[in-house]
Amino acid sequence: MRTAGLNRASFPAINPGTTQTLAIGSSSTATAAPIGADVVRLVSTVDCYVANGSNPTATASSMFLPAKMPEYFVLAQTDKIAALQVSTGGTLYITPAA
Q: Beta partners for 40?
């Protein structure tokens, strides 16, 4: 991950890898394979809960990810991502740093 300045401020930036999608539904769904990157960008079409780890399960106690608000996370390369809808189904876009 690189940071660059605008008026000496920094902002997160990644060299994007291949984006994968994950269907968000009423039960936790996880990526089939590990993400394989140290940094990942997540953005969802709906409010959802997300979790990461070697065998993650998203619950209503997991981290809340608001719709259409990209977030960047530092992961272990062996981590998978799981998501659970808050009220309606949607899509989670997962973009690892290349």
A: 73, 96
Domain ranges of the chain: 14-96
Given 2.60.120.770, 3.40.50.720, 2.60.120.560, 1.10.10.60, which CATH number is that of 14-96? Answer: 2.60.120.770
pLDDT of 5 = 46
| Per-residue pLDDT tens over the stretch 47-59 | 999 999 999 999 9
User: Whose structure tokens read 């973009």?
Assistant: 95
The answer to whether 67 and 47 are in contact (CB under 8 A) is yes
Which phi and psi (to 5°) does residue 73 adopt? -130, 145
Of the candidates 36, 30, 76, the residue with the CA atom closest to the CA atom of residue 57: 30
